[in-house]
Amino acid sequence: MPAYDASLFDPPAPLARVTPRNLSNGATVSDVPMLIDSGADITLVPHQSADQLGLRDD
Q1: How is the beta sheet containing 13-18 ordered, strand by strand?
Q2: Going along 1-58, which residue ranges are E strands?
Q3: Helix (H/G/I), strand (E/B), else coil: 22
Q4: CA 50 to CA 48: how far, in whole Å?
Protein backbone atom coordinates (compact mmCIF):
# COMPACT_ATOMS: atom_id res chain seq x y z
CA MET A 1 0.00 0.00 0.00
CA PRO A 2 1.43 3.43 -0.93
CA ALA A 3 2.09 6.03 1.75
CA TYR A 4 -0.53 8.71 2.28
CA ASP A 5 0.68 12.31 2.26
CA ALA A 6 -0.99 14.72 4.67
CA SER A 7 1.44 17.60 4.02
CA LEU A 8 0.41 18.16 0.38
CA PHE A 9 -3.19 16.91 0.39
CA ASP A 10 -6.19 17.46 2.67
CA PRO A 11 -7.58 14.90 3.18
CA PRO A 12 -4.41 12.80 2.92
CA ALA A 13 -4.00 11.06 -0.44
CA PRO A 14 -1.82 8.23 -1.78
CA LEU A 15 1.42 9.52 -3.24
CA ALA A 16 4.18 7.83 -5.23
CA ARG A 17 7.66 9.22 -5.85
CA VAL A 18 8.48 8.41 -9.47
CA THR A 19 11.29 8.90 -12.00
CA PRO A 20 9.72 9.97 -15.32
CA ARG A 21 11.84 9.68 -18.47
CA ASN A 22 11.56 11.33 -21.88
CA LEU A 23 12.02 8.50 -24.37
CA SER A 24 12.94 10.97 -27.15
CA ASN A 25 16.01 12.46 -25.48
CA GLY A 26 16.70 10.15 -22.51
CA ALA A 27 16.28 12.90 -19.89
CA THR A 28 15.08 11.78 -16.46
CA VAL A 29 13.89 13.55 -13.31
CA SER A 30 14.15 11.70 -10.00
CA ASP A 31 11.80 11.70 -7.02
CA VAL A 32 8.80 13.49 -8.57
CA PRO A 33 5.77 13.31 -6.23
CA MET A 34 2.71 12.04 -8.13
CA LEU A 35 -0.82 11.57 -6.79
CA ILE A 36 -2.11 8.03 -7.28
CA ASP A 37 -5.64 8.22 -8.72
CA SER A 38 -6.80 5.00 -10.37
CA GLY A 39 -9.95 6.70 -11.67
CA ALA A 40 -8.16 9.57 -13.41
CA ASP A 41 -8.66 10.15 -17.14
CA ILE A 42 -5.31 11.93 -17.59
CA THR A 43 -1.89 12.14 -15.93
CA LEU A 44 -0.44 15.53 -15.04
CA VAL A 45 3.27 16.20 -14.60
CA PRO A 46 4.53 19.23 -12.62
CA HIS A 47 5.72 22.12 -14.86
CA GLN A 48 9.23 22.01 -13.43
CA SER A 49 9.54 18.30 -14.22
CA ALA A 50 8.18 18.81 -17.75
CA ASP A 51 10.75 21.57 -18.32
CA GLN A 52 13.60 19.36 -17.07
CA LEU A 53 12.44 16.56 -19.37
CA GLY A 54 12.24 18.90 -22.36
CA LEU A 55 8.49 18.38 -22.79
CA ARG A 56 7.39 22.02 -22.93
CA ASP A 57 7.78 24.28 -25.96
CA ASP A 58 6.74 27.65 -24.52
Answers
A1: 4-5, 13-18, 32-35
A2: 4-5, 13-18, 32-35
A3: coil
A4: 5
Decide: helix, strand or coil at residue 54.
coil
Answer yes or no: pTM beyond 0.85.
Answer: no
Phi and psi based region of residue 31 (left: phi greater than 0; alpha: psi -120 to 50; beta: remaining): left
Res. 52: pLDDT tops 70: yes
CB 53 within 8 Å of CB 22:
yes
Q: What are the two backbone dihedrals, phi and then psi, of residue 32, each rounded to the nearest 5 degrees?
A: -90, 120
Reported confidence tier of residue 3, pLDDT bands at 50, 70, 90: confident
pLDDT of residue 28: 97
Q: Please state, in angstroms and rounded to a whole number, the distance separating the CA atoms of residues 13 and 3.
A: 8
